[in-house]
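Provenance and format

Records in this collection were gathered into a single text stream. Each protein contributes a sequence line and a token line. The two records reproduced below are adjacent in the stream.
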Amino acid sequence: MIEDSSTKRKNKLMLIAGPCAVETPEQTYEMAYKVSLVRDALQPLGIEVGYRGGAWKPRTQYHNTNGDKVFEGTREQGLHWLSEVAEKYDLPIVTECMSEHDIRHFERELEPDRDFIQIGARNSQNFALLYTIGGTPFNVLLKSPQHGVDVKEAVGSLQRLKRNKIIAYCVRGQKRFIYPDSEEDEIFSEYMKELMQSPGQNPEARNLNNIGSIINLRQNSYIRDNGIMLCYDPSHTLGGKNDELRRMIGEQAIRAVKEFGYEMLEIEANDHGSYAKVDGAQALLISKKNVDWTETNYGQESNLIPGQGKEPEVTPITIVDIASEMADFQAEKLELDYETLRECKNKLDAITWNMIP
């Protein structure tokens, strides 16, 4: 069980990894098994690990480029798969609830002491949903809205979460500016060009990287006094338009912990990204050992072709790599003995891409 006291959580870190959407039982089990191996390595250092996966998937577009209706999740069936892997591998689940009318499914399948209900960016100010989830004992991960982090808005949403034990607020990037009169402003365009030269920004990224929002969030008394965990989602911040951006996801995840002091990371991971029905392009690999690159999103742009992945020229940063950096950070911070860290690194080093449950 995850500890819920802000005092006990003072030196805690949490890594949440898994596919954007749970699409099949085989995919759900395989990735949960691999995430559990990362958990086994990190647990002695006091680093918690959870498994993310969407059963309900809100999508921006209703039709894809072929005119077909987009995939919007496996819903109740996917939630049941998540429940099964949570029990089998003893993993906390993080999964999104889109509507207050669906909460009964989460109450039936998930465990409030263990699992997190995610409230997505599009629903971050959906007060009916906030009040409903806030009336349950589930842990909650609340995403920042698409337009970015406004501390007053964040606190207003968080204050609706009354009964939840662990509450995390997740920074996930912000949309680029939309000109009110539809005409580009020269002064603002120059500002954006300058901004793109800043560390952590990329003109090809899915969103602007607002990793620094933690500074204002941490200064807020409500967030500080109520032990709200601060989480960073580099996957939705940067997207996976190319291999360089996929590497940036890993770089920014490490930076979030080591430079900015985020307590939680939520990262998409899918070892068969080229076949994913949603957001396969921005998923990281668990490990870069023994990889069949054709199965992956690497060597491709964002419009993935199944089975056409290639070994990238840019060295990927994987979930194992991020976990290793978190281990180093935690060991130094807590002054843990070398043998504990060495055992953790050995376990991480033994994880390979082609492991199966």
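Adjacent record:
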Amino acid sequence: MSVNIDTTGNGESVPIRPAATVMLVRDGEQGLEVCMLRRNLNSDFVGGAYVFPGGGVDPADGEPEVEPLCDGLTDAEASAMLKLPGNGLAFWIAAIRETFEEAGLLPARWADGSPLRFDDPVVAERFVEHRRGVDQRERRLVDVFVEEGLRFELGDMHYVSHWVTPAGAPRRYDTRFFLAAAPGGQKPVHDDREVIAARWIRPDDALEAHAAGTYSMLPPTVANVRSLSRSATVADALAAAAALPEVPPMVPRVLNDEAGVRIVMPGDPDYEKAYAGDESLGSWPGVGDRGGPAWNAGAAGAPRATGEHHVGMPEVDAVGGAHLSGATSDAEPT
């Protein structure tokens, strides 16, 4: 399918919304697995794509009542990691809240330090109602934590990647990616509204299916899945994430030339030629239209995409994800 994008803009400025997403991983029978959700096919933005649970940061995620319920990370520390003047903790909370809303998973601990589990059907049913209330904005997640006596355990929830949607998209997000072990005694249950399926999948399997055209993922998702593929176990992935020295922001751009519509990355020779305005371009490739090497950067078996470059630091991908393998390596091509 041919997609034409008018790179002159349509006069409507597109705000960039802060967002957060988390890769929840577990040790499966054949190795590391990550929880992924499939977006509703009728969604007006990346419908049908497989994603990690996540979404926009809400004001309630950063309200003053939140920090006293957090262990392992302060707002000052979180803000320093994200290079923000303040309210950085809200990104961690947003990722947890969105995971609860979309997948029914809630990484949390009771006041005595024991993990929240849903093995007890009474507890499970109570949290089904909590989930509905939070999702419908009838109550805040912090209210659930206060009522239940829960704590946010953020010390093992690692910041690993930072992507900004290319200029020209109808919606733009400044998204922080996190990594954490999946909570035990809980099973993902999709909300059947924003997402229509939830599954555990090995990173290599996701990359192979993506390259075969049967598993749609956006470039940031591909980059982070590829990073996960370097780890054999949850412990390996968490250790490598904890050792990550810095997370560089990745700000791709869209270029429409004789080669077609493609994404170019910082360091690409054509990066400065690409669209860098703040207006919507009026149309945007759907997930099924992103068949070129740049859209599918990093997929197993995909050709090397435009913009290969090196970040110049250990453990960091040129595409913005941590090398979650515990081994220093050159940056990967985009």
